[in-house]
Amino acid sequence: MREVTIKLETINDVKNFVSAVTKFECYFDIAVDRYVVDAKLIMGIFSLDLSKPLILQIKTDDEKEIGDILKAISAVIVSE
Predict the structure, then answer these.
(1) How many CB atoms lie within 10 A of CB 56?
(2) pLDDT, one tens digit for every residue, the chain (80 residues)
(3) C-alpha distance from residue 30 to each of 54, 59, 80 (Å)
(4) CATH code of the domain made up of 2-79
(5) Residue 65 Cα distances to 6, 23, 25, 33, angstroms
(6) Cα–Cα distance, 8 to 11 (Å, whole number)
(7) Rg, the chain, Cα only
(8) How far is CA 6 from the centre of its chain?
């Protein structure tokens, strides 16, 4: 599992992010404060406080897949 800090500032950021992560088979969660939602569900993401940085949990041990994921979502990554 890998954790990455992301920032989703606009509606388009959220749409593009969900579109990118749904292309992968592994599981993703987004955590902020005490809330955790499935990162592939757009309505779940909109239920979070998007003014704060979000922790994306990438649930796979395949380093190649993690690299592909990080490349696909590079526009919203704050820190790895």
Answers:
(1) 24
(2) 999 999 999 999 999 999 999 999 999 999 998 999 999 999 999 999 999 999 999 999 999 999 999 999 999 999 87
(3) 6, 11, 14
(4) 3.30.1340.10
(5) 18, 11, 10, 27
(6) 8
(7) 11
(8) 7
| Kind plus residue range of the DSSP H or E element containing 13 | helix 11-21
Supply 74's token pair. Answer: 């590079």
CA 12, CA 43: separation in Å to the nearest integer? 14
What are the structure tokens assigned to 63, written together? 């380093």
Domain spans of the chain, in order of start: 2-79
d(CA 14, CA 44): 11
